[in-house]
Specification:
By secondary structure, the protein is an alpha/beta fold. The chain has a single domain, classed as P-loop containing nucleotide triphosphate hydrolases (Rossmann fold), CATH 3.40.50. It contains twelve helices and seven strands. Strands 3-4-2-5-1-6-7 form a seven-stranded mixed beta sheet, with helices on both faces. Strand 6, helix 8 and strand 7 form a beta-alpha-beta unit. Helix 1 packs across helix 12. The longest helix is centred in the C-terminal third of the chain and has 17 residues.
């Protein structure tokens, strides 16, 4: 039986490439033969839109076959898992109604662990090697729920002056959550949207590598027009542009994440 590992992709700074990193690492692991469940925890639905077009995504958002229904109504998570049209890869879509999740959680008993309880059955079933959760770019009760349900957190950081802004807050938040969910650990920081021609890239990457508070993945994800093309096609770049620079980098990052999580 598989020992399922739950990994959250989180950063309170928007534009970090979080959803793109989650979708492509998940797809790369699926291509390598791992069974992966992707859970979209963001009302922007970017992870969902990485695997289906807008019309399909809105259909799932409206018909109740989404994560919000699980959190709001106590629906069985397994009932909203759909195949993502790629071998070994399944998806739990999000909904724009997730915008109200903080309010919905407020009145619930042990609200920090509702997602964890909803995941327990799927996690212990041995169906998946990995469960990836894409968190919204905020710090609050819902992100706390996601982290409490996870074994690890991957923090994508854009290689820009503003990219590292707030990183300390994200790390501090995770440490605070560990008071009630001691199993969770930061798996690593992933540098994304890198442009080596820019001076700030060298400054940002050097600053991240000099710190010793958390691990830093060796693989750097560079800016690549193939990513935008893939997003326009509602598909991960590792599945549609396998020879592109970014596809190769996401595949290498997936190997690193698998190696780190297996320690």
């Amino acid at each position: 039986m598989r020992h399922t590992k739950v990994i959250a992709f989180a950063n309170n700074k928007g534009g970090s490439g979080k959803s793109t990193t989650a979708s492509n690492v998940g797809a790369a692991l699926a291509q390598a033969g791992k069974r992966v469940l992707m859970i979209d925890g963001d009302m922007q639905m970017n992870l969902t839109l990485s695997f289906m077009d807008e019309e399909q995504a809105l259909t799932y958002a409206k018909n109740g076959d989404n994560l919000y229904s699980v959190m709001k109504n106590g629906k069985d998570l397994s009932a909203v898992i759909i195949p993502a049209l790629y071998e070994n890869l399944d998806l739990v879509p999000s909904s724009t109604l997730m915008s109200g999740i903080e309010f919905d959680l407020f009145t619930k008993w042990q609200r920090e662990f509702i997602l964890k309880k909803a995941l327990d059955g799927v996690k212990t079933s041995g169906e998946y090697d990995y469960i990836f959760i894409d968190a919204p770019p905020t710090l609050g009760g819902w992100v706390m729920n996601i982290i409490c349900a996870s074994d690890y957190v991957v923090i994508p950081v854009e290689a820009s002056p503003w990219g590292v802004f707030g990183l300390a807050n994200m790390v501090e938040f995770i440490e605070e959550v560990r008071a009630i969910a001691p199993q969770v650990a930061i798996l690593g920081i992933a540098i994304t949207k890198a442009d080596e021609r820019k001076k700030y890239f060298k400054e940002t990457s050097a600053a991240l590598r000099e710190q010793e508070a958390f691990p830093l993945f060796n693989t750097i994800i560079h800016t690549d027009s193939a990513v935008e093309w893939a997003q326009d096609q509602s598909t991960p770049v590792v599945t549609c542009k396998r020879s592109s620079r970014s596809a190769k980098e996401y595949t290498e990052l997936a190997k690193e994440i698998e190696n780190y999580a297996g320690r």
